[in-house]
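## retry 2 of 3
previous attempt timed out at serialization; input unchanged, resubmitting
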Amino acid sequence: MSLMQTVWRCTFSPRLYKIYEFTWLNNIVDKPYEPKSLERWGDQVITSFVTMWSLSLYTFPLMAILIYRRITPVFDFYSLTKFAAGAGLILVTSLVARGYSRASNPLYIKFIKVLEEAKARNGSEARKELNKYDFEFWASPVDFQVAKVDGGVRKQKQTLESIFNSRSSNRRQTSKEYIATLPCKIISYVTAHTVAVKLMYPGSIAFINWILRTAQIQGRSDLIKRGAERFKIGTSDGNYLDTIFINRKNSRFANGDVLVITCEGNCGFYETGVIGTPIACGYSVLGWNHPGFANSTGAPYPAQEENAIDCVLRFAIDSLGFPENKIILYGWSIGGYTATWAAMNYPTIKSMILDATFDDVLPLATSKMPVAIEHIVRSTIRQYLNLNIVEQLIRYKGTVLLIRRTEDEMVCAPSLTLSGNRGNILLAKLLTRRYPQIFTEDSDSSPLLTRFLNSPTPNARKTIMDSVGVSEERCADWIVTDLAKNNWEINYPSDLGLTSTPIEKRQLALFLATKYMVDQASQHCVPLENEFFHPGWDPSDYKKHFNKLKQEE
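## retry succeeded, writing output
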């Protein structure tokens, strides 16, 4: 291949960050790729142009007004033409300089050959060689694609839109009603597709990704040195997700055969996010970045989020070989939306852990926005950003563990107190849906549960439990009796509490609250402690207790 062809190939090739090497002890060490001076200069110039282009998308309306009014002579047509020509010349020069510098660097040429071979062969050996390099994600070959697995046929899933549409009436709006609401609809659409999605998911802002890029590369490097493997997977709507997989199958780790899929928060990335806790607890772990976050493509609108987690689940089941009943979904904060959507559509998963999660984004949004635009906020969220987590949670009938941060400052509304924590609403609605016979009007279980959850200290909550006379052994016996009556099949809504007295219902309500939710004394962004990470309470575990009692009889 001629020098010109090599330079051309290297001009538009990906940036190389690190090279991984195996030592004689089979440890992985990372060495930063050191670009030559011309390549470094070219990268800096090109990065500056990309950053300015991203910012111009937001400042274009203001600039257009200035140009139109010609506030200063700088904004006349001739000056703009000269400026554009000069900028174009600098950009082309930097591209050529970068390409020439890379073409004369043996390390980079070796990387390009490995990359091209991996794309051409797509085999395990070629992929293994490519994994020795950390480079720009867009150039990586695709490892898994939902469309290929499904044969191009998209499977229908349960969504909030379908749930709410089935509830709504069939009455159509009149022409007058449509015209009256049209301005609000237009404003909501524009808001949702500009400001709102960025406020709700700041991790999708290009500038924040640029600031955090060094931390992301280092975090990814730390995971790879611990044996992680990076994959590029394609969703059904054409996005590509950056994922990382830590495989503990058939290893010395007791929990290695169970896969934890992490769902990060609104500014969280798998490189630096909640992935550390399940790794420390010995699980196999699959982390992924939201659409529009870091190297994942797209934008974090609900439909793209749903397609993303669906793709991650399919990849875990079809490619990594984990059955549904060996998968735990771990959603932190706003990640509870994708976790509950997946649980609703994959009901046989092992369990779901929701950490520092809220019930619905609307109360949080309205509490932080001016009252004057509340109607716009409601319309924008309900039409385009409807993250109603509790509606998805109550449709999942498996094991659930809720983790509440007692000093949480993010998911509280209307007040920044424990009583304002939206996790309280999440738990209350889940228990009410699963155990309606316990939360009848005559039992006063709902007001008692609210008072219990609003109590600011563990001692205050213990006092309430003692005043009602909660006994774990007695509550366990009632649950065992109910399960045995149903041949140990767990069905929701449950009949538990149907024949109980009001005081027994109150005891069961508090007992179940302690089983479904645990508290960590911390703020929102503090990493979850290892002791709180477990699959959660499963009523069928009482079967062992039941069998033991039978043997004693």
